[in-house]
Amino acid sequence: MISGGQYQFSKEMLEQQKFAFMVFRCRINTEGQVRDCTIVEGEGMDGAEQNLAVLFRSRFSPATLAGHPMSIPYTFSVRFSPVPRWDGLSTAEVLAWARLRVSQYPQSAPAWGNLALELAEHAPEDPLYPQAVARAHALSPRAWWPATELAWQRVQAGQYVAAMMAVRFPLRRERGNPYVLETGAAAHFGLGQCTEALKAQERAVGLLPEEWPTPERERFQRKLKDYQTACAGASPSRATAASP
User: Fold this and answer.
1) Does 75 reside within a domain?
2) Integer Cα distance of 42 and 35 in angstroms
3) Which of 65, 150, 214, 229 sits 20 to 30 Å CA-CA off 72?
4) Quick one: average pLDDT of 195-217?
5) Alpha carbon of 204 to those of 30, 135, 150: distances in Å?
6) Is the peptide bond before 84 cis (omega within 30 degrees of 0)?
7) What residues make up the domain containing 116?
C-alpha cells in the first residue's frame, strides 16, 4: 500500500466487542487503484460499505510483469476482533467460527479455505475435512494449497490420475515448495512414472530447509529411497511411462 485510510467499524460493534470478518474481491489496476470490487463476505454488515470506500480511496504499487504494470485480481480480508480476545479463542471456538463462515457464505472460497486450514491443523480426522478441501479447490482452483491437499488425499485413495490433474498447476507455480513436489512425486509413482517421481522427490529433499524437524527430513529421505528401490527393478516401459 502506498496510501489509504483506516478500516472503519460501527460504534455498536466497538461497544459490544463483536467479531466481524469481511472479504472483498477486487482488481488492482495498472495505476495501483482498487476497482471492480464485490463483497464476498459481509454483505449488509455494519461497516462493509464504508470499508469498501476506504479501499477505493487507497493506492497500491501495481503488479508488474517484465517491468510493466499489469492489472490483477486481488482479495482483501478485513477482520475485527476485540484485542486480545481473538488470540485467546479456544480450538473449539476457532472451528465454530470457521464453520459459521461457510454456513453464512457457502460460495466464499476464502471461507472454505480457512475452514480447511483450521481442520487440517486441529481436526484432520473430522469427516468435513475432505469436503472442505474439495470445496475450497472447486471455488479457487488456482490456489495451490487446496489443490495440493486434494491431490494428496487422492493419492492416499489410489486415484493417481485425479491426483495428477489436481497437482499439475501447483507443480508449475510452486516449484520451490517441497510438499507440492512430494505430492507430485507420489502421483507420478502411482502412475508408474519412475523418472518423474524420482526427479520430483529428489528436488523436494534438496529444498527442505536445514532447520526443518529431523523426523520430517528423514521421512522425505525414506520416501526417496523407497522410490529408488522400487524403480531400480522397474521395466524400461514402466520407468518412462507417458503422462495420461
Assistant:
1) yes
2) 18
3) 150
4) 95
5) 36, 27, 19
6) yes
7) 89-140
